């Protein structure tokens, strides 16, 4: 009989957000206190009022929390004025973000915290919103007309929050025939095309240099996990452990194959290249490796309580040597997860955790990405993060930042009030 994971085998549990509307007596006064911390980030008192009203609208019971409904719900509200504030008014966004992260650190900061990188899509009609294109939208699981944001989430034993964001601008937006749209959308002229992993790399580097939020782990989906640039950025930081998803086609060896240098002539010069000594020593895909592992080596772990009962997976791990361009490179942990049943579905993760790391730690890390999924779910369903109708580059960032701060404000209330919550364990899909 395979062992079942006990809760105390996790490094720490992640609490579930469970603050109810009836738990806060003077919500508006609390919100005003939060907003007072950002008064010096706006040049005019009108902007400060707009900022408060816009966030208050996100907490309201409005069915759609875009600018017009929010403005019309305010006494003497002005739709155009609120639109100008979100899309065109100057915000000291860098200063706001730095302050915001310091508040996140006050409530959620932990030396064992984790930075999580993931993307979220926003369905859009038309073609004039900044960065909109036919592209994969994770929200609906297929290609559609949408914008895509790359986000950084933070999770610790105290809770979770979004702490940074970048709007992905598809490469075609930098073509000459998009120049008019770029100007209308106020895309900064010095903006250049960056892939999603490059945007994640940029955020990770900034967070590391800023050194406000402590963290030990870096988690990410396969688009980032298989990016040499992103992995190199993590490895350049001392004492950071990455745990990232990879595709089933990633290739590796269980034992490091022997290599040798071979000289050859090219362009009249002698050059060398590294080749395998045994040309038949081909690397395996991680999928092929997983399907050939005997049942004896798989450990059953209960990872959460679902609506239909316990959610259970089986896990195994191996030390593997990754293959790049057919040659052996770094040695990492490979964690494999599979569903139960006759036709199991596999998921794969790699990590630079030390060789002494136990299976339970890797299993625990595989579940932490749930936190950023919860951030997306809660900010979209409760705060209208996907209700916006702004088209300009500054407007998208202002709206998303406001949503991030509103979400954290709720966590602050929960922590300030000392409200205990049920522990929520989950494995990212």
From TrEMBL:
Pfam families: DDE_5. Coiled coil: none annotated. Residues 37-310 form the Transposase IS701-like DDE domain. Signal peptide: none annotated. This is IS701 family transposase.
